[in-house]
Design brief:
The protein contains nine helices and eleven strands. The strands form two sheets. It has a six-stranded antiparallel β-sheet with strand order 1-2-5-6-9-10. A hairpin with a 2-residue loop joins strand 5 and strand 6. Helix 8 packs antiparallel against helix 9.
């Protein structure tokens, strides 16, 4: 038991270090993205975005940390001949692998609540925070070239000086089709309440008529355009944001494959993603043992291939599942099956040595 506790402490410490290191790097990238997208809102949006970003990224960071930490620890043990010493003393390979198995099971117990509750909540909250920030951004338009998308409207200007926009362009779309576009040498945001009102100075206007014909109009005076934000603010949760109970109710209430398959893909992807940390640990451990020249850098490099295999297969099969090219079960569990087969082969190879 002393040996297992020693190895488990090493694994847990390495995992926590890798998890928080990768998470910090991701959050720093999120901070730069937020400041670049919403320079006028600053720390107000940052205080909301960072917790949501943490929840949304936690499951992916867990995958990276589980793979790298397991490989690094067992690579170090192999490099310092501790694995060889254990085998010489008659310690079975199962005891050597048991701390990693325990860590993997703990990660599964942590990953399922993350994928089931935290990630959907964070994803929806991040989307709503982004929308709300996009609506609030025109209250203090930043200088320089800016581009805002608010519902079905897109506002762009090259600079903002003394309360006026320079060379603003306002585009209105409907169902993805541009139906109106305003070009003006100057303009101003005259109201930020519902609806947002934008004044365009002597604009040139392009309209798409109901019969499909295009009409060009040149206005000799200011034109005020109203941008409704009601639908934009009250966005409903998408199926990917629903809890499992609601998704299962929807699955059992319909027999249409076009409705059932996307919902089943969401459900089983959550279950499969929760198993992935355990499978990555089981793949990473024998890889670490096989890294005979096991410097930490070599162990880190050896951890990347199984992680890349999982990520590539995950996105490939998710795309196939979204297009109904394969069944939801295949799309969800195929990446896990690849890892499981690889783990069996590698563990078998280590056990025979």
């Amino acid at each position: 038991m002393i040996l297992e506790r020693y190895m488990f402490r090493e694994l847990l410490a390495s995992f926590l270090f890798a998890f928080f290191a990768v998470l910090c790097v991701c959050l720093i990238g999120t901070m730069f993205q937020v400041f670049r997208t919403f320079p006028s809102l600053g720390f107000a949006i940052l205080s909301t975005a960072l917790p949501l970003a943490t929840g949304a990224m936690a499951s992916w960071v867990m995958l990276v940390a589980s793979s790298t930490s397991s490989t690094l620890v067992y690579a170090r043990l192999a490099a310092e001949n501790e694995i060889t010493a254990m085998r010489t003393c008659g310690i079975h390979t199962g005891r050597i692998l048991s701390p990693a198995l325990l860590l993997g099971l703990m990660l599964v117990c942590a990953a399922y609540p993350l994928n089931e509750y935290v990630v959907p909540w964070a994803r929806y909250g991040r989307r709503m925070a982004f929308r709300q920030s996009t609506i609030e951004a025109p209250t203090a338009p930043p200088p320089g070239s800016q581009d805002f998308t608010i519902g079905q409207y897109r506002l762009h200007y090259t600079d903002y000086v003394d309360g006026r926009m320079i060379n603003p362009t306002l585009t209105q779309t409907k169902n993805g089709t541009v139906i109106a576009k305003y070009f003006a040498p100057g303009g101003a945001i005259v109201s930020v309440s519902e609806p947002i009102k934008v004044s365009m100075s002597s604009p040139n206007l392009w309209l798409l008529k109901t019969n499909g014909q295009q009409e060009y109009i040149s206005a000799g005076s200011d034109v005020t355009v109203e941008m409704s934000i009601k639908d934009f603010e009250n966005a409903e949760k998408q199926p990917v944001d629903w809890p499992a109970e609601k998704i299962w109710d929807k699955v059992f209430s319909t027999k249409e494959r076009s409705v059932r398959n996307p919902l089943l893909l969401i459900l089983h992807t959550r279950y499969a993603a929760s198993l992935a940390p355990l499978l990555l640990v089981l793949v990473a451990v024998p890889i670490g043992i096989l890294v005979r020249r096991g410097s930490r850098l070599a162990g880190l490099g050896a951890a990347l291939p199984p992680l890349l295999i999982y990520l590539v297969s995950y996105f490939v099969f998710q795309g196939l599942g979204d297009k109904n090219r394969v069944s939801p079960l295949v799309a969800a569990y195929a990446p896990d099956v690849f890892l499981a087969v690889l783990a069996i082969l590698l563990i078998g190879g280590v056990t025979r040595k």
